[in-house]
Amino acid sequence: MTSIHIDRLTLYEKDYLQWLETTIEKLRDRDYTHIDWEHLIEEIEDMGKSERRSLESNLIVVLLHLLKWQYQPESRSGSWEGSILEHRRSIRKALKDSPSLKPYLETIFSECYVEAVKQAKAETGLALETFPIQCSYQLVDVLDDTFLPESEDV
Asked: What's the pLDDT at 2?
């Protein structure tokens, strides 16, 4: 720690990394009186939000590429399949690290599908009506590396 004393609020605002290092040092030393609790709690809350946002983003990408795979079979590519695998892997890793995210994943599934449909419309140029209103995939299939939907006659 530097010999220059910097007010902890100022430190958090001016040098986030130094604030982190100082906070970790204080926690290790059990110097609980001098911890910037307000920002520490905020950071921990943000970590949880970040995990949920990442899960949501990965799910949207998987759904998007499954839709493109199904509704634009003539444009299929290894990069679509690779992206599906990569984002499935990220979802599985997140669920392995934090099993409590599984109910959240189930809760956001329909919402993520709606977002994936909007993105698929934009990326494919197909009419919004091309895609089913309700997701025709089951979550278990979406996460299964062997699942790729059959082509639809568009």
From this structure: 47
